[in-house]
Amino acid sequence: MNMINTNLPTAELQKLDAAHHFHPFTDNSALGKKGARVMVRGEGVWLTDSEGHRILDAMAGLWCVNIGYGRKELAQVAARQMEELPYYNTFFQTTHVPAIALAAKLAELAPGDLNHVFFAASGSEANDTNIRLVRRYWQAKGKPWRRTILARWNGYHGSTLGGGSLGGMKGIHAHGGKIDGIEHIEQPDWWSEGGDMSPEEFGLARARQLEEKILEVGPDNVAAFIGEAVQGAGGVIIPPSTYWPEIQRICQKYGVLLILDEVITGFGRTGNWFAAQTFNIKPDIITIAKGLSSGYQPIGGSILSDEVAAVVGGDEFNHGYTYSGHPVAAAVALENLRIMQDEGIVEHVRDVANPYLAKRWAELADHPLVGEAKLVGLMGSIALTPNKATRAAFTSETGTVGFRCRERCFANDLIMRHVGDRMIISPPLCITPAEIDVLIERARKSLDECYAGLQ
Ligand code: PLP
Protein backbone atom coordinates (compact mmCIF):
# COMPACT_ATOMS: atom_id res chain seq x y z
CA MET A 1 0.00 0.00 0.00
CA ASN A 2 1.12 3.53 -0.74
CA MET A 3 2.46 5.21 2.42
CA ILE A 4 1.67 8.72 1.21
CA ASN A 5 -1.54 10.05 -0.15
CA THR A 6 -0.39 11.37 -3.52
CA ASN A 7 -3.80 12.88 -4.11
CA LEU A 8 -3.30 15.50 -1.43
CA PRO A 9 -3.81 19.03 -2.74
CA THR A 10 -0.61 20.89 -3.59
CA ALA A 11 -0.95 23.26 -0.64
CA GLU A 12 -1.15 20.29 1.77
CA LEU A 13 1.91 18.64 0.24
CA GLN A 14 3.81 21.92 0.48
CA LYS A 15 2.82 22.33 4.10
CA LEU A 16 4.09 18.84 4.98
CA ASP A 17 7.23 19.48 2.96
CA ALA A 18 7.97 22.74 4.77
CA ALA A 19 7.28 21.13 8.14
CA HIS A 20 9.42 17.99 7.78
CA HIS A 21 11.67 18.04 4.75
CA PHE A 22 14.93 19.94 5.23
CA HIS A 23 16.07 20.81 1.71
CA PRO A 24 19.61 21.07 0.27
CA PHE A 25 20.80 24.48 -1.05
CA THR A 26 17.51 26.09 0.01
CA ASP A 27 16.47 28.78 2.46
CA ASN A 28 14.33 26.36 4.47
CA SER A 29 12.73 29.15 6.48
CA ALA A 30 11.22 30.54 3.26
CA LEU A 31 9.42 27.29 2.36
CA GLY A 32 6.60 28.05 4.79
CA LYS A 33 5.84 31.28 2.92
CA LYS A 34 6.29 30.04 -0.64
CA GLY A 35 5.99 26.29 -0.98
CA ALA A 36 8.32 24.25 -3.16
CA ARG A 37 7.06 23.26 -6.59
CA VAL A 38 5.97 19.62 -6.44
CA MET A 39 7.08 17.52 -9.41
CA VAL A 40 5.06 14.40 -10.07
CA ARG A 41 6.00 12.97 -13.48
CA GLY A 42 8.54 13.17 -16.30
CA GLU A 43 8.68 12.25 -19.98
CA GLY A 44 11.59 13.08 -22.28
CA VAL A 45 12.53 16.72 -21.57
CA TRP A 46 9.16 17.43 -19.91
CA LEU A 47 8.18 17.51 -16.25
CA THR A 48 4.64 17.71 -14.90
CA ASP A 49 4.00 19.37 -11.55
CA SER A 50 1.19 18.74 -9.08
CA GLU A 51 -0.86 21.53 -10.68
CA GLY A 52 -0.67 19.89 -14.09
CA HIS A 53 1.82 22.36 -15.63
CA ARG A 54 4.05 20.90 -18.37
CA ILE A 55 7.50 22.28 -17.76
CA LEU A 56 10.47 22.08 -20.13
CA ASP A 57 13.40 21.02 -17.97
CA ALA A 58 16.37 22.75 -19.59
CA MET A 59 18.61 21.60 -16.71
CA ALA A 60 17.99 17.81 -16.97
CA GLY A 61 17.26 17.84 -13.23
CA LEU A 62 20.67 18.64 -11.80
CA TRP A 63 22.54 18.14 -15.11
CA CYS A 64 21.92 14.43 -14.92
CA VAL A 65 18.87 13.10 -16.79
CA ASN A 66 20.88 12.67 -19.97
CA ILE A 67 18.59 10.20 -21.77
CA GLY A 68 15.45 12.01 -20.60
CA TYR A 69 12.69 11.12 -18.17
CA GLY A 70 10.38 8.13 -18.27
CA ARG A 71 12.52 5.39 -19.84
CA LYS A 72 10.75 2.21 -18.78
CA GLU A 73 13.69 -0.02 -19.70
CA LEU A 74 15.61 1.37 -16.74
CA ALA A 75 12.74 0.69 -14.34
CA GLN A 76 12.48 -2.87 -15.66
CA VAL A 77 16.20 -3.54 -15.26
CA ALA A 78 16.08 -2.15 -11.71
CA ALA A 79 13.13 -4.38 -10.80
CA ARG A 80 14.82 -7.47 -12.27
CA GLN A 81 18.07 -6.76 -10.44
CA MET A 82 16.24 -6.17 -7.15
CA GLU A 83 14.58 -9.55 -7.47
CA GLU A 84 17.79 -11.36 -8.37
CA LEU A 85 20.43 -9.71 -6.15
CA PRO A 86 19.27 -6.47 -4.55
CA TYR A 87 22.50 -5.91 -2.70
CA TYR A 88 25.92 -7.25 -2.24
CA ASN A 89 29.15 -5.40 -1.61
CA THR A 90 32.48 -5.31 -3.38
CA PHE A 91 34.70 -5.33 -0.26
CA PHE A 92 37.01 -8.16 0.86
CA GLN A 93 37.43 -9.95 -2.47
CA THR A 94 33.79 -10.24 -3.47
CA THR A 95 32.09 -8.90 -6.58
CA HIS A 96 28.96 -9.30 -8.70
CA VAL A 97 28.02 -9.27 -12.36
CA PRO A 98 26.57 -5.70 -12.66
CA ALA A 99 29.70 -4.12 -11.14
CA ILE A 100 32.00 -6.24 -13.32
CA ALA A 101 30.08 -5.46 -16.49
CA LEU A 102 29.81 -1.75 -15.77
CA ALA A 103 33.51 -1.37 -14.91
CA ALA A 104 34.46 -3.16 -18.13
CA LYS A 105 32.07 -0.98 -20.15
CA LEU A 106 33.48 2.21 -18.65
CA ALA A 107 37.03 1.08 -19.38
CA GLU A 108 35.95 0.60 -23.01
CA LEU A 109 34.32 4.05 -23.25
CA ALA A 110 36.87 6.12 -21.34
CA PRO A 111 39.77 7.52 -23.36
CA GLY A 112 43.41 6.48 -23.19
CA ASP A 113 44.54 4.15 -20.44
CA LEU A 114 41.73 5.03 -18.01
CA ASN A 115 40.85 1.41 -17.36
CA HIS A 116 40.06 0.98 -13.66
CA VAL A 117 36.88 2.10 -11.91
CA PHE A 118 36.38 2.74 -8.21
CA PHE A 119 32.65 3.11 -7.54
CA ALA A 120 30.87 5.54 -5.23
CA ALA A 121 27.24 6.59 -4.90
CA SER A 122 27.69 10.23 -5.95
CA GLY A 123 30.08 12.77 -7.43
CA SER A 124 30.91 14.18 -3.99
CA GLU A 125 31.86 10.75 -2.68
CA ALA A 126 33.95 10.10 -5.78
CA ASN A 127 35.89 13.32 -5.25
CA ASP A 128 36.42 12.43 -1.60
CA THR A 129 37.82 9.16 -2.88
CA ASN A 130 40.11 11.13 -5.20
CA ILE A 131 41.62 13.04 -2.27
CA ARG A 132 42.56 9.78 -0.60
CA LEU A 133 43.64 8.18 -3.88
CA VAL A 134 46.14 10.87 -4.88
CA ARG A 135 47.58 11.18 -1.37
CA ARG A 136 47.90 7.41 -1.14
CA TYR A 137 49.53 7.40 -4.59
CA TRP A 138 52.36 9.65 -3.41
CA GLN A 139 52.72 7.76 -0.11
CA ALA A 140 53.11 4.55 -2.07
CA LYS A 141 55.73 6.25 -4.24
CA GLY A 142 57.70 7.13 -1.10
CA LYS A 143 56.76 10.84 -1.06
CA PRO A 144 54.07 11.19 1.62
CA TRP A 145 54.73 14.92 1.82
CA ARG A 146 53.25 15.34 -1.67
CA ARG A 147 49.69 15.90 -0.44
CA THR A 148 48.54 19.41 -1.43
CA ILE A 149 45.76 19.43 -3.99
CA LEU A 150 45.26 22.48 -6.20
CA ALA A 151 41.82 23.50 -7.42
CA ARG A 152 39.98 26.63 -8.59
CA TRP A 153 37.89 29.32 -7.01
CA ASN A 154 34.29 29.00 -8.22
CA GLY A 155 34.88 25.35 -9.14
CA TYR A 156 32.37 22.81 -7.83
CA HIS A 157 33.27 19.28 -6.80
CA GLY A 158 30.43 18.36 -4.45
CA SER A 159 29.31 19.28 -0.98
CA THR A 160 30.72 16.65 1.36
CA LEU A 161 33.51 18.17 3.45
CA GLY A 162 36.11 16.83 1.01
CA GLY A 163 34.23 17.73 -2.17
CA GLY A 164 33.27 21.13 -0.78
CA SER A 165 36.91 21.80 0.14
CA LEU A 166 38.10 20.95 -3.38
CA GLY A 167 35.41 23.26 -4.72
CA GLY A 168 36.02 26.96 -4.60
CA MET A 169 32.60 28.12 -3.47
CA LYS A 170 33.13 30.49 -0.57
CA GLY A 171 29.53 30.06 0.59
CA ILE A 172 30.18 26.35 1.10
CA HIS A 173 33.50 26.91 2.90
CA ALA A 174 31.67 29.37 5.17
CA HIS A 175 29.35 26.59 6.37
CA GLY A 176 31.64 24.32 8.35
CA GLY A 177 35.07 25.17 7.00
CA LYS A 178 37.34 23.19 4.70
CA ILE A 179 39.95 20.49 5.13
CA ASP A 180 43.64 21.27 5.05
CA GLY A 181 46.03 20.84 2.15
CA ILE A 182 43.83 22.27 -0.60
CA GLU A 183 44.73 25.55 -2.35
CA HIS A 184 42.85 27.47 -5.02
CA ILE A 185 43.80 29.46 -8.10
CA GLU A 186 41.57 31.80 -10.13
CA GLN A 187 39.07 30.52 -12.70
CA PRO A 188 39.28 31.03 -16.49
CA ASP A 189 36.17 33.25 -16.70
CA TRP A 190 37.09 35.70 -19.46
CA TRP A 191 33.71 37.49 -19.59
CA SER A 192 33.80 38.57 -15.94
CA GLU A 193 37.50 38.72 -15.21
CA GLY A 194 39.37 38.97 -18.51
CA GLY A 195 39.68 42.79 -18.57
CA ASP A 196 41.46 44.03 -21.70
CA MET A 197 43.11 40.71 -22.53
CA SER A 198 41.98 38.62 -25.47
CA PRO A 199 40.33 35.34 -24.40
CA GLU A 200 43.44 33.46 -25.58
CA GLU A 201 45.85 35.64 -23.58
CA PHE A 202 43.59 35.38 -20.56
CA GLY A 203 43.33 31.59 -20.84
CA LEU A 204 47.13 31.34 -20.77
CA ALA A 205 47.43 33.81 -17.89
CA ARG A 206 44.93 31.90 -15.77
CA ALA A 207 46.53 28.53 -16.56
CA ARG A 208 49.93 29.94 -15.59
CA GLN A 209 48.58 30.69 -12.14
CA LEU A 210 48.79 26.92 -11.68
CA GLU A 211 52.55 27.04 -12.26
CA GLU A 212 52.89 30.02 -9.89
CA LYS A 213 50.96 28.16 -7.21
CA ILE A 214 53.01 24.99 -7.69
CA LEU A 215 56.20 27.02 -7.24
CA GLU A 216 54.76 28.79 -4.18
CA VAL A 217 53.70 25.53 -2.49
CA GLY A 218 56.83 23.75 -3.69
CA PRO A 219 56.63 21.28 -6.60
CA ASP A 220 57.53 18.42 -4.31
CA ASN A 221 54.52 19.10 -2.08
CA VAL A 222 51.82 19.05 -4.75
CA ALA A 223 49.86 15.84 -5.29
CA ALA A 224 47.30 16.83 -7.89
CA PHE A 225 45.29 19.47 -9.67
CA ILE A 226 41.52 19.06 -10.04
CA GLY A 227 39.26 20.94 -12.43
CA GLU A 228 35.99 20.61 -14.30
CA ALA A 229 36.58 20.68 -18.06
CA VAL A 230 33.77 23.25 -18.17
CA GLN A 231 32.75 24.72 -14.81
CA GLY A 232 29.08 23.83 -14.41
CA ALA A 233 27.71 25.09 -11.11
CA GLY A 234 30.09 28.06 -11.43
CA GLY A 235 28.00 29.29 -14.38
CA VAL A 236 28.94 27.14 -17.41
CA ILE A 237 32.31 28.79 -17.81
CA ILE A 238 33.78 27.48 -21.06
CA PRO A 239 37.52 28.13 -20.85
CA PRO A 240 39.43 29.85 -23.67
CA SER A 241 41.05 27.40 -26.12
CA THR A 242 44.53 28.10 -24.70
CA TYR A 243 43.63 27.07 -21.15
CA TRP A 244 43.63 23.26 -21.03
CA PRO A 245 46.75 22.66 -23.18
CA GLU A 246 48.70 24.91 -20.81
CA ILE A 247 47.29 23.22 -17.69
CA GLN A 248 48.24 19.87 -19.18
CA ARG A 249 51.77 21.07 -19.94
CA ILE A 250 52.26 22.38 -16.40
CA CYS A 251 50.94 19.21 -14.75
CA GLN A 252 53.30 17.13 -16.89
CA LYS A 253 56.28 19.39 -16.19
CA TYR A 254 55.93 19.03 -12.40
CA GLY A 255 54.58 15.45 -12.32
CA VAL A 256 51.32 16.69 -10.78
CA LEU A 257 48.41 14.27 -11.21
CA LEU A 258 45.52 15.69 -13.21
CA ILE A 259 42.00 14.91 -12.00
CA LEU A 260 39.33 15.88 -14.50
CA ASP A 261 35.93 16.21 -12.86
CA GLU A 262 33.51 14.98 -15.53
CA VAL A 263 30.51 14.63 -13.25
CA ILE A 264 28.58 16.99 -15.55
CA THR A 265 30.57 16.76 -18.76
CA GLY A 266 30.79 12.97 -18.91
CA PHE A 267 28.40 10.80 -20.92
CA GLY A 268 27.76 12.91 -23.96
CA ARG A 269 27.16 16.40 -22.60
CA THR A 270 29.85 18.09 -24.74
CA GLY A 271 29.32 15.98 -27.85
CA ASN A 272 31.77 13.19 -26.96
CA TRP A 273 31.54 10.49 -24.33
CA PHE A 274 33.92 12.57 -22.22
CA ALA A 275 35.01 16.21 -22.31
CA ALA A 276 38.58 14.92 -22.12
CA GLN A 277 38.03 14.05 -25.79
CA THR A 278 36.36 17.37 -26.65
CA PHE A 279 39.20 19.41 -25.11
CA ASN A 280 42.00 16.90 -25.81
CA ILE A 281 42.94 16.50 -22.14
CA LYS A 282 44.82 13.45 -20.82
CA PRO A 283 43.85 13.10 -17.17
CA ASP A 284 45.17 10.55 -14.67
CA ILE A 285 41.77 10.28 -13.00
CA ILE A 286 38.26 11.15 -14.19
CA THR A 287 35.38 11.75 -11.76
CA ILE A 288 31.99 10.47 -12.96
CA ALA A 289 28.39 10.44 -11.67
CA LYS A 290 25.10 12.01 -12.88
CA GLY A 291 24.79 11.00 -16.57
CA LEU A 292 26.32 7.59 -15.79
CA SER A 293 22.83 6.42 -14.81
CA SER A 294 21.02 9.46 -16.23
CA GLY A 295 20.16 10.15 -12.60
CA TYR A 296 17.85 7.12 -12.37
CA GLN A 297 20.02 5.64 -9.60
CA PRO A 298 22.63 7.28 -7.37
CA ILE A 299 26.01 6.16 -8.68
CA GLY A 300 29.40 7.78 -9.28
CA GLY A 301 33.03 6.83 -9.38
CA SER A 302 36.63 7.52 -10.27
CA ILE A 303 38.22 6.09 -13.41
CA LEU A 304 41.95 5.61 -12.86
CA SER A 305 44.79 5.32 -15.34
CA ASP A 306 46.75 2.07 -15.50
CA GLU A 307 49.63 3.76 -13.68
CA VAL A 308 47.57 5.22 -10.81
CA ALA A 309 45.76 1.91 -10.35
CA ALA A 310 49.03 -0.02 -10.32
CA VAL A 311 50.63 2.26 -7.72
CA VAL A 312 47.63 2.56 -5.38
CA GLY A 313 46.65 -1.06 -5.96
CA GLY A 314 50.08 -2.33 -4.90
CA ASP A 315 48.74 -2.72 -1.38
CA GLU A 316 45.37 -2.75 0.41
CA PHE A 317 43.39 0.44 -0.29
CA ASN A 318 41.71 1.32 3.02
CA HIS A 319 38.67 3.01 1.59
CA GLY A 320 35.18 2.09 0.37
CA TYR A 321 31.47 2.69 0.68
CA THR A 322 28.68 0.25 1.54
CA TYR A 323 27.16 1.18 -1.82
CA SER A 324 30.35 1.09 -3.94
CA GLY A 325 29.20 -0.63 -7.12
CA HIS A 326 25.65 -1.18 -5.84
CA PRO A 327 24.18 -3.89 -8.07
CA VAL A 328 20.89 -2.13 -8.83
CA ALA A 329 22.61 1.18 -9.57
CA ALA A 330 25.25 -0.59 -11.69
CA ALA A 331 22.64 -2.55 -13.66
CA VAL A 332 20.66 0.63 -14.34
CA ALA A 333 23.79 2.52 -15.38
CA LEU A 334 24.71 -0.28 -17.76
CA GLU A 335 21.26 -0.20 -19.35
CA ASN A 336 21.51 3.59 -19.61
CA LEU A 337 24.81 3.27 -21.48
CA ARG A 338 23.33 0.58 -23.72
CA ILE A 339 20.46 2.88 -24.67
CA MET A 340 22.85 5.76 -25.27
CA GLN A 341 24.93 3.62 -27.61
CA ASP A 342 22.05 1.89 -29.39
CA GLU A 343 20.21 5.18 -29.96
CA GLY A 344 23.33 7.13 -30.90
CA ILE A 345 22.68 9.77 -28.24
CA VAL A 346 26.22 11.17 -28.31
CA GLU A 347 25.97 11.55 -32.11
CA HIS A 348 22.55 13.17 -31.59
CA VAL A 349 24.16 15.73 -29.27
CA ARG A 350 26.63 16.66 -32.01
CA ASP A 351 23.82 16.89 -34.61
CA VAL A 352 21.39 18.92 -32.54
CA ALA A 353 23.93 21.12 -30.74
CA ASN A 354 25.66 22.35 -33.82
CA PRO A 355 24.41 24.11 -35.80
CA TYR A 356 20.82 24.02 -34.49
CA LEU A 357 21.04 24.91 -30.79
CA ALA A 358 24.26 26.87 -31.35
CA LYS A 359 22.49 29.10 -33.87
CA ARG A 360 19.31 29.56 -31.83
CA TRP A 361 21.29 30.15 -28.61
CA ALA A 362 23.48 32.77 -30.30
CA GLU A 363 20.32 34.64 -31.36
CA LEU A 364 19.69 35.44 -27.69
CA ALA A 365 22.78 37.68 -27.72
CA ASP A 366 20.72 40.31 -29.58
CA HIS A 367 18.51 40.74 -26.51
CA PRO A 368 19.21 44.02 -24.66
CA LEU A 369 19.97 42.13 -21.41
CA VAL A 370 22.33 39.56 -22.90
CA GLY A 371 26.08 40.07 -23.28
CA GLU A 372 27.58 36.78 -24.42
CA ALA A 373 25.79 33.54 -25.29
CA LYS A 374 28.15 30.56 -25.13
CA LEU A 375 27.69 26.87 -25.68
CA VAL A 376 29.62 23.62 -25.88
CA GLY A 377 27.62 20.56 -26.88
CA LEU A 378 24.42 20.76 -24.87
CA MET A 379 25.56 23.00 -22.03
CA GLY A 380 25.40 26.75 -22.35
CA SER A 381 25.15 30.08 -20.60
CA ILE A 382 24.15 33.65 -21.26
CA ALA A 383 25.69 36.52 -19.33
CA LEU A 384 23.23 39.26 -18.36
CA THR A 385 24.71 42.75 -18.35
CA PRO A 386 23.67 46.41 -18.24
CA ASN A 387 26.44 47.24 -20.74
CA LYS A 388 27.53 44.77 -23.41
CA ALA A 389 30.50 46.84 -24.58
CA THR A 390 32.18 47.04 -21.17
CA ARG A 391 30.95 43.59 -19.98
CA ALA A 392 29.75 45.36 -16.83
CA ALA A 393 28.03 43.55 -13.97
CA PHE A 394 24.76 44.71 -12.46
CA THR A 395 25.14 46.63 -9.23
CA SER A 396 23.74 45.14 -6.06
CA GLU A 397 21.01 47.83 -5.83
CA THR A 398 19.35 46.16 -8.81
CA GLY A 399 19.50 42.82 -6.99
CA THR A 400 20.44 39.62 -8.75
CA VAL A 401 18.97 40.04 -12.20
CA GLY A 402 19.70 36.38 -12.88
CA PHE A 403 17.44 35.38 -9.99
CA ARG A 404 14.62 37.57 -11.35
CA CYS A 405 15.06 36.06 -14.77
CA ARG A 406 15.08 32.54 -13.36
CA GLU A 407 11.80 33.31 -11.57
CA ARG A 408 10.26 34.50 -14.87
CA CYS A 409 11.44 31.27 -16.56
CA PHE A 410 9.86 29.22 -13.79
CA ALA A 411 6.59 31.12 -14.17
CA ASN A 412 6.76 30.43 -17.93
CA ASP A 413 7.22 26.68 -17.39
CA LEU A 414 10.89 26.61 -18.30
CA ILE A 415 13.55 25.43 -15.89
CA MET A 416 16.76 27.36 -16.35
CA ARG A 417 19.16 27.97 -13.50
CA HIS A 418 20.92 31.21 -12.62
CA VAL A 419 24.41 31.64 -11.20
CA GLY A 420 24.67 35.27 -10.21
CA ASP A 421 23.69 37.06 -13.42
CA ARG A 422 24.41 34.11 -15.69
CA MET A 423 21.53 31.98 -16.96
CA ILE A 424 22.48 28.42 -17.77
CA ILE A 425 21.10 25.37 -19.56
CA SER A 426 21.98 21.70 -19.71
CA PRO A 427 18.91 19.94 -21.16
CA PRO A 428 18.36 16.20 -21.53
CA LEU A 429 20.49 15.01 -24.45
CA CYS A 430 17.43 13.64 -26.26
CA ILE A 431 16.09 17.18 -26.86
CA THR A 432 14.72 17.71 -30.41
CA PRO A 433 14.93 20.81 -32.62
CA ALA A 434 11.19 21.48 -32.00
CA GLU A 435 11.80 21.37 -28.24
CA ILE A 436 14.80 23.67 -28.65
CA ASP A 437 12.43 26.15 -30.33
CA VAL A 438 10.13 26.02 -27.28
CA LEU A 439 13.14 26.48 -24.97
CA ILE A 440 14.34 29.57 -26.88
CA GLU A 441 10.85 31.04 -27.17
CA ARG A 442 10.22 30.70 -23.41
CA ALA A 443 13.70 31.98 -22.55
CA ARG A 444 13.20 35.08 -24.71
CA LYS A 445 9.77 35.75 -23.21
CA SER A 446 11.27 35.47 -19.70
CA LEU A 447 14.16 37.79 -20.64
CA ASP A 448 11.66 40.32 -22.04
CA GLU A 449 9.62 40.23 -18.83
CA CYS A 450 12.73 40.54 -16.69
CA TYR A 451 13.96 43.47 -18.79
CA ALA A 452 10.57 45.20 -18.60
CA GLY A 453 10.68 44.82 -14.80
CA LEU A 454 14.03 46.64 -14.67
CA GLN A 455 12.82 49.74 -16.60
N1 PLP B 1 31.43 17.51 -9.45
C1 PLP B 1 30.75 18.31 -10.26
C2 PLP B 1 31.45 18.93 -11.44
C3 PLP B 1 29.39 18.55 -10.04
O1 PLP B 1 28.73 19.37 -10.85
C4 PLP B 1 28.76 17.91 -8.96
C5 PLP B 1 27.33 18.14 -8.72
O2 PLP B 1 26.71 19.01 -9.27
C6 PLP B 1 29.53 17.11 -8.12
C7 PLP B 1 30.86 16.91 -8.40
C8 PLP B 1 28.92 16.45 -6.94
O3 PLP B 1 28.10 15.41 -7.33
P1 PLP B 1 26.95 14.88 -6.33
O4 PLP B 1 25.96 15.98 -6.19
O5 PLP B 1 26.46 13.66 -7.05
O6 PLP B 1 27.60 14.55 -5.05
TrEMBL record:
This is Aspartate aminotransferase family protein. Its cofactor is pyridoxal 5'-phosphate. It holds the Pfam family Aminotran_3. InterPro entries: Aminotrans_3, Aminotrans_3_PPA_site, PyrdxlP-dep_Trfase, PyrdxlP-dep_Trfase_major, PyrdxlP-dep_Trfase_small. Gene3D superfamilies: Aspartate Aminotransferase, domain 1, Type I PLP-dependent aspartate aminotransferase-like (Major domain). CDD domains: OAT_like. Keywords: Aminotransferase, Pyridoxal phosphate, Transferase. GO terms for molecular function: transaminase activity. Belongs to the class-III pyridoxal-phosphate-dependent aminotransferase family.
